[in-house]
Specification:
This protein is α/β, with parallel strands linked by helices. Helices cover 30% and strands 25% of the residues. The protein contains twelve helices and 16 strands. Strands 3, 5, 6, 7, 8, 15 and 16 form a seven-stranded mixed β-sheet that branches. It binds zinc ion (ZN).
Length: 338
C-alpha cells in the first residue's frame, strides 16, 4: 500500500509503505473510509517541531474493521468504527476517571494517512456504530475522532454551562468546533475571535453570537466590553502560542475557567500574573474516547454537523496538496479519501 510520510519541512511524500498486520493479540486492522490532516500536523510540517527521521503521519480515522487479534472481544470484522488519536485500554484507573488520553497503556496514533491502519488496544480505543453509516455522515463521524472531541473537551474544561458567556481564541477547526460544543452545552453568548470571513461565517453557523477581529490587548479589551467589563466566564484557548495563551488568561473573569487545547509551543507563564488572574486552568490532550459514544450519537441523530469544517476533500494520493492548502490557510481542514 501507499501511505503518508513527512521527510522534513514542507516535504510530504505519498509512498510505498508496509501493509499493517496484527502484531499484538489486542490489535485491530481497519480499512479507512476517510482520514484527514490535523492542525497539529502543521507544527512538524512547518519545521517548528522538527522530526529526527522520516515520520509516518495521521491520527484521525474511521473505517471498517478488516481483522482483529484473538484477544479482541467487542470489536468485530465488518463493523464501522471510530477511534481516538490516543489508544487506551479503557479499564485502568485513569481511563475509568475519564482521562483515556493519559491511559497507562497509551500510544499515540501516527500512521492514519493511509488506506489501512493498525489500532492497538482495539476494544478500549474503538467505538463501533450500530450499522454502517450512510456516506454523507462520514465527514462528521471522522470529525469526532479528534477535532470535535478536542473542541468538546475545551468547552468541558472551561466549565461551559447553560447561560455561560464564552470566548473562543482561535478560528482553526478545533476553535470552530469548540464554538459548536459551547453551543451544545447551552452557552448564552459565544464570542469567536477570527479575522477570516469564511471562518467567521462557519463560527456563526455553529453558534457564535459575536465576532472579535482584534488580537492581543485590543482583543482582550473587546471581550471585556462584551462581558460587562469583567471578562468571559469561560475561555477556550485553541491555538497554543504565547500570545493566544496570554490573551485567553486576560480575557477570563476572576473566578472564571480556561480550557486550553492548543498544543503549547514556546508558552511560558508568569507565576505572579497567573496567581493574580484568579482563574481555573484545565487542558491537555483531549480524552476523546470519553466523548466518542455521545458525539457519535449526536452526529448519527443529525443534531450536529461537525463535518462542515472540512472545506477541502482530496484523494489520499494528493495528501501533499492537502498540507499545502492548510499551511497557506486556503483550507480550514482537509479530508482525505483513500
Ligand atoms: Zn487506561
Amino acid at each position: 500500500m501507499q501511505g503518508t510520510m513527512l521527510y522534513g519541512p514542507r516535504d510530504i511524500r505519498f509512498e510505498d509503505r508496509p501493509e499493517p498486520t496484527i502484531t499484538k493479540s489486542t490489535d485491530a486492522i481497519i480499512r479507512l473510509s476517510a482520514t484527514c490532516i490535523c492542525g497539529s500536523d502543521l507544527w512538524p510540517y512547518r519545521g517548528i517541531q522538527p522530526i529526527a527521521q522520516p515520520t509516518p503521519m495521521g491520527h484521525e480515522y474511521c473505517g471498517i474493521v478488516e481483522d482483529v487479534g484473538r484477544e479482541v472481544k467487542n470489536i468485530k470484522p465488518g463493523q464501522f468504527v471510530v477511534g481516538s488519536f490516543a489508544t487506551s485500554d479503557n479499564t485502568c484507573v485513569i481511563c475509568k476517571d475519564g482521562y483515556q488520553s493519559s491511559c497507562v497503556h497509551r500510544e499515540f496514533m501516527s500512521t492514519a494517512q493511509a488506506p489501512l491502519l493498525r489500532v492497538p488496544l482495539a476494544d478500549g480505543t474503538l467505538v463501533a456504530t450500530s450499522d454502517l453509516p450512510p456516506k454523507e455522515l462520514i465527514p462528521s463521524l471522522l470529525a469526532t475522532s479528534d477535532v470535535l472531541g478536542t473542541g468538546w473537551f475545551a468547552a468541558y474544561a472551561a466549565n461551559v454551562k447553560p447561560g455561560s458567556k464564552v470566548a473562543v481564541v482561535g478560528d482553526g477547526a478545533v476553535g470552530l468546533l469548540a464554538v459548536l460544543s459551547a453551543k451544545q452545552m447551552g452557552a448564552e453568548r459565544i464570542i469567536a475571535m477570527s479575522r477570516h470571513a469564511s471562518r467567521q461565517k462557519l463560527a456563526r453557523e455553529f453558534g457564535a453570537t459575536d465576532i472579535v477581529t482584534e488580537r492581543g490587548d485590543q482583543g482582550v479589551a473587546r471581550i471585556r466590553e462584551l462581558t460587562n467589563g469583567i471578562g468571559a466566564d469561560s475561555v477556550l484557548e485553541c491555538v497554543g502560542t504565547q500570545e493566544s495563551t496570554i490573551q485567553a488568561i486576560n480575557s477570563t473573569r476572576p473566578g472564571g475557567y480556561i480550557g486550553y487545547l492548543g498544543v503549547p509551543h514556546g508558552v511560558s507563564l508568569d507565576g505572579e500574573k497567573l496567581f493574580f488572574a484568579h482563574v481555573h486552568l484545565h487542558g491537555g490532550p483531549a480524552p476523546v474516547r470519553r466523548y466518542l459514544p455521545k458525539l457519535i450519537e449526536l452526529v448519527w441523530d443529525g443534531k450536529i454537523k461537525p463535518g462542515k469544517v472540512f472545506d477541502l476533500t482530496l484523494p489520499l494520493a494528493q495528501v501533499a496538496e492537502g498540507y499545502r492548502a492548510m499551511d497557506e490557510r486556503r483550507a480550514i481542514k482537509t479530508l482525505l479519501r483513500p
